User: Fold this.
Amino acid sequence: MSKKIMLGILVVLGMLVGMGSLSMVNATTYYVDAVNGNDDNPGTQEEPFKTIGKGVEVAIDGDTVQCAPGTYTEEITITERIALVGNGTPTIDPDIDGTAVTFSGNGADDASISGFRITGVTGDWGVAGIHCYDADPKITNNIITDNIFRGIRCSDSSPSITNNTIIRNGEISIECGPYSHSSITNNIIRGNTWGINCHYYSNPIITNNIITDNEYDGVSCDYSSPTITNNTIMGNDGVGIYCYNSSSPITNNIITSNGIGIQSSESSPIIDYNCVWGNSYADYYDCVAGDNDISEPPQFVNEANGDYHLRPTSPCIDVGSNTAPALP
Assistant:
């Protein structure tokens, strides 16, 4: 290759890098204030928009829409890689039937939502607090509560769902629908009808969650094989982990005080290094304990008040596997 051709390639590469850097430098933050804003404003900090929808409408890839405290009675659809950020936990509570926030299409991959309370969703069976449809966004540090059906719904999507509190939703806290491979980490999932429901070839990674006091199952796997590692699954009226046509690896979990600990039906889950104890009907149903499972009281610091850290005397300390799948 001649020096002139090589120089030309380097110049073009330099221009592309520069353009990428310029795009990041030129990213815009739009401001929204439900109380003091107006959608005829330019969306600056001094003159914010009134609705999130207006901010989302004008934002392009790389932009941020930053929302002040208040209640936003609207439905939002995000189709580009933007960051939706709540300051002071603003509330999204739609005033009509339908999903509160929808991430739609590959353009919304790596979009994000953080810092909101999402509640009050009404409508038919398909609605949710957040719906990811063919999109892989980041859902972080939200409170998703009191929605009629689902907290989060994933359809052919693989979002990152981290550090959320998902409570008292009427049907399912997180539904991983067909071909969804979500990362579900460090969430509190409590008081829903079901905890996490995985079905039809969805294989999410479920790690470090507290899944408690749901009316039916903590984690339900139906024609899917999620990786279930390092979770506390407790006090669910149905099954802690239910597997139907599933070969999930189930490792390093504490599964206690449920109706049944782990139940398998036409499945071959890989069970090992768990503490499965004190489940009211059975610890294992149609499956057997792993070679390194234990069955002893886990000794939480303050179970009654939701502190599931382990006491220094807990038998669960230092007995898990350091090579468990999907360790954080």
